[in-house]
Amino acid sequence: MxxxxxxxxxxxxxxxxxxxxxxxxxxxxxxxxxxxxKQEFYYPYCFKIIIAERSPDERKAKGVLDRTFVFxxxxxxxxxxxxxxxxxxxxxxxxxxxxxLIDFRKLLLIYRLFHFQDPIVDIDIGLEGRHKELCKPVxxxxxxxxxxxxxIEESFQILLNAKNQRKGNSIEAALHPIIVNLVSxxxxxxxxxxxxxxxxxxxxxxxxxxxANEFQTYDYGTIYRNTITNIISGxxxxxxxxxxxxxxxxxxxxxxxxxxxxxxxxxNNVSSS
Length: 273
Known about the structure:
Elements: E1 2-3, H1 13-21, E2 29-32, E3 39-42, E4 49-50, H2 62-66, H3 82-86, H4 92-114, H5 129-141, H6 146-168, H7 171-186, E5 189-191, H8 192-202, E6 205-207, E7 214-217, E8 221-224, H9 225-233, E9 240-243, E10 249-252, E11 260-261, E12 264-265
Parallel strand pairs: 1-4
Antiparallel strand pairs: 2-3, 5-10, 6-7, 7-8, 9-10, 11-12
Helix pairs in contact: 5-6, 7-8
């Protein structure tokens, strides 16, 4: 599945639902066939490529982005223009290249049909969670090809390192030391206003006095006070909650205050209080 010019997919609940469902091999999505007017079910599990000028909004597509490798592409100078190859207009060289592409596509189709019933061997890739969902299906397909497998593993490692680095540079990661410091100084109850003040004092950026709830950061773009509140609200657990009082209060369990990371309270060998 290839989606081009997909800048607004985060604004389509239908597309987001399809992408989220498509990570499980037996899951189905219901769609109405416009020709018959009947509801039909489809399997969205497949390799997906999303091409866009910007990434989806992380607040709306966090689950999708967690299961996605994101990287930038750059303008290149290919020897042949694919648009011209697809329409050779009688040019012998272009027609030859088009025939080569069509033959290769047919070869791939025959290979797929020939191996359609082959079992997919379960393997241990040493990864868990989102990383496992991203890498395991591809590694399973190439597990018997040692040369290809090594190249694929190296490529995945580069992509995983970049993914982890982006997480480390996210606004959630920047909130971590701010909140930990507030807990150590203020105690268990923290007001969201105090977190916002900590952001203004700690994160480099430009503040517009006329827009008190907006902050132009150098590293994370424009952030808003309600965005920070939503991030914290979406990260609540048994030991972290937002009280619906006149002034919002954040409560963090003392035993877990050092485990706050990337917008979540992570319990590593620490029992919930």
